[in-house]
Amino acid sequence: MRTLNLILAFTMLTVTSFAQNPDSTATPTTKKDTSYLKVNGKEIIIIEDRNAFDTKFEGWEDDKDFSKMNVDISWNKKFDGHYGGIELGVNNYLNADMEMTVPEDGQFMELDDSKSLEFNWNIADVALPIVKDRFGLVTGLGLSWNNYKFDNKQLVLQNDGEEIYTVYDSTKNYSKNKLTSVYLNVPLMLEFQQQVGSKELWIAVGGYGGVKIGSHTKLKTNDGDKTKVRKDFHLNTLRYGLRAQIGFDSFGLYCNYSLQSLFKKDEGPELYPISLGVSLAF
Prior knowledge:
Blueprint: H1 2-20, E1 29-31, E2 34-39, E3 42-47, H2 50-56, H3 60-63, E4 85-94, E5 117-131, E6 135-149, E7 155-158, E8 165-168, E9 174-196, E10 199-221, E11 226-229, E12 238-248, E13 251-258, E14 272-281
């Protein structure tokens, strides 16, 4: 009779949880006289023998931490990548010698570092497991907005020559002068995941490719007048590079480094974009 009551209570609890959240998943496992259940992110234990609780869960009232107890609890987990989400980072670039300084012919590209921001909207990702729920291949699709705010705001980029150049505008006082490029990106990374308690530590490394779908400059004067020019500005249409991510649960850090110069060959200074920032995976 006692066992029947437990089964009925367990059934009602499960049905109620699924009714409240249709996306909930439950994967029960059973070991001897003890059942374990994960419903809607909650861990539920059903003990039929009180003595089993005393021996298996000794110290429960003190720490209530499954990881410190001698219990074999395992959940069936789906391998899921951490590319999809949003990212916010800081833009800069390296020269041909891998130094964070601009070459002599690119002094006009000196940046206001703290305001040269990158925003990435990684629309979706696809994860292909290689080693169960621990290791796999991750790809996806994302959009990237790269803002390069120039330190010398009076130097205005020009797009009417065979290469990029600037003119000094002394007729106006500018409070903002930036170049923005928008890319559609596709990554290809290997991701390793390790369970740490109820959280997850993950590392992903690989590369990415992208195609430019837009670029413009934006000028703003101290009086509030704004000018936006949509041109090519001799930027490379295609780009490719290296990418790395590391994180804990949904939060992480990322780094992108382009192996392709920002500008087309012989049409601008040789600069290789690099960005570093934080990510929130969905």
